From TrEMBL, chains A, B:
Locations listed in the record: Cytoplasm
Source organism: Tindallia californiensis
Molecular function, one GO term: folic acid binding
Enzyme Commission identifier(s): 2.1.2.5
One GO cellular component term: cytoplasm
Pathway(s) the chain acts in: Amino-acid degradation; L-histidine degradation into L-glutamate; L-glutamate from N-formimidoyl-L-glutamate (transferase route): step 1/1
UniProt protein name: glutamate formimidoyltransferase
Domain of life according to the entry: Bacteria
Ranges where the Formiminotransferase N-terminal subdomain domain occurs: 6-183
Annotated ranges, domain Formiminotransferase C-terminal subdomain: 184-298
């Protein structure tokens, strides 16, 4: 409860999901850094990959991430890596997410400084991606990682794919790392009183960005067989610009066309406070409300 | 960011609003206690009274409150006190409010332990009030304080008004103190597209508890002359049982009768996160949502 801290989330992915001792050592970097909290970590044998979710003060997070990346570079050998999930490096992707009292610009600057230090300290080639990308061609991670580890040694020698930091000569053991910044994802599903997967799919196509819908919404139709209903399953990629209430109301409107009703919605996993309070403010028609009025914000300073 | 802390708010009122040096010394007790945050303090000359708002870990808050009460007992002399606001002691009322990871029962226990220690340490007569009251007759602060300081020396000698802690002989300099527990208040106003104060007043009477409305709602009609509209001005005394969306929808329904529309609403001052998220959950028809999913809660542990 001292002065305001800039809080970020970091969700790095490492190319190890089978040797759990290695996963634990990577997680330790977050567990043992003051002002950083290890929220979750999970590994998948088929993917041979682990995902860490950590929350903490920006500078402390930088320190923890660099320590974790160093551990991964020491203990993972990409020349022997096999797994179903696309990957290009031992530390594969390192996205930073602004949570509190930090702007996206500042989060991008943090990502850049982490990328620079990883490149210098370990001689690692780094791509900046998503909001940290220096060119539009590098925003999309799938494009950056295309060809995966096996093609990366050649790819980073091309002028178009010169790394943002580090050498153009790929270190075989550690590969290439993508460091980026993005908004928090909100996994948001809307349930319909229909058992027809086609209805959910048609509605998803109306509301999602790629086919003409809301800018920060990805989605598809999903069947919930045990409940005998269908759902529009979405990822909201920037709740501050595409609000939950907006997609909820839009799905209701699209559903009317098929004589279908919205029966409920669900948030899977974590959601920033503001994403929900923003919807409360819409429905209650709140005037002049600011997030500072939320009592708990003074607990987070 | 260590283990979960029990967080309470405390809003003590002291009988000094003119000598600001005294007010500062009382505020210092909260300012200088680790794990306690002084959120706000204000004093009023006419009332000759100051109100402190502090937030912090339960045990630390107990320590800060006892220190502040001791300072007030040392520096305020009730035999010379004059002011427009009802009062009965140098430390007049000390309400504790549960905020995070603490139940109302635990908050009542905290209030009792503070009351006991103030009585023992300073020889102060104490009444427990609101949720901490031991009998229904002491729930209402106005009844407890009736007669004010001037009548209190006699009142606490009556069997009915024997203090919950401390002597039945009132110390003249410090008077009597009420210590209690309550839910956070939410000051919530709903604006109507009418300029008729009677309409707002009639609606207030339908929705407030005392005249047949919602259990934890107090309210009255108010005229906003500068905007040319009227408003139903309310205090929600337990948002966990009488939700904001419920009173909002009820005011809409009552307003229809007069051909009047709700144009907006406003929250004055602080509001607990859950009071708004609960309304978002209602309107978005959220299924199986828990407050643990709110990302920021892990920042408050």
């Amino acid at each position: 409860m001292s002065s305001k801290k800039q809080i970020v989330q970091c969700v790095p992915n490492f190319s190890e999901g089978r040797d759990l001792a290695v996963v634990e050592k990577i997680a330790d970097a977050f567990r043992n850094t003051p002002d950083v909290k290890l929220l979750d970590y999970s590994s998948d044998e088929d993917h041979n990959r682990c995902v860490i979710t950590a929350l903490g003060e920006a500078k402390a997070m930088k320190e923890a991430v660099i320590k974790a990346v160093g551990t991964a570079f020491e203990l993972i050998d990409m020349t022997k890596h096999e797994g179903q999930h696309p990957r290009m490096g031992a530390a594969d992707v390192v996205p930073f997410v602004p949570i509190k009292d930090i702007t996206m610009e500042e989060t991008v600057a943090l990502a850049e400084s982490v990328a620079e230090e990883i490149a210098e300290k370990f001689g690692q080639p780094i791509f900046l991606y998503e909001k940290a990308a220096k060119t539009p061609g590098r925003e999309n991670l799938a494009k950056v990682r295309k060809g995966q580890y096996e093609a990366m040694a050649e790819k980073i020698k091309e002028a178009e794919w010169k790394p943002d930091f580090g050498p153009t000569e790929m270190p075989p053991q550690t590969g290439v790392t993508a460091v980026g910044a993005r908004m928090p994802l909100v996994a948001y599903n809307i349930n319909l009183d229909s058992s027809d997967p086609e209805v959910a799919d048609k509605i998803a196509k109306k509301v999602r960005h790629i086919s003409g819908g809301l800018r920060y919404c990805k989605g598809m139709g999903v069947e919930l067989k045990d409940r005998g209903i269908v759902q529009v399953s979405m990822n909201m990629t920037d709740y501050s610009k595409t609000a939950l209430y907006r997609v909820f109301e839009l799905v209701k409107i699209e559903a009317q066309r098929y004589g279908v009703n919205v029966v409920g919605s669900e948030i899977v996993g974590a959601v920033p406070m503001e994403a929900l309070i923003d919807s409360a403010a819409y429905y209650l028609r709140l005037e002049d409300f600011t997030m500072d009025q939320v009592l708990e914000t003074s607990l987070m300073e």
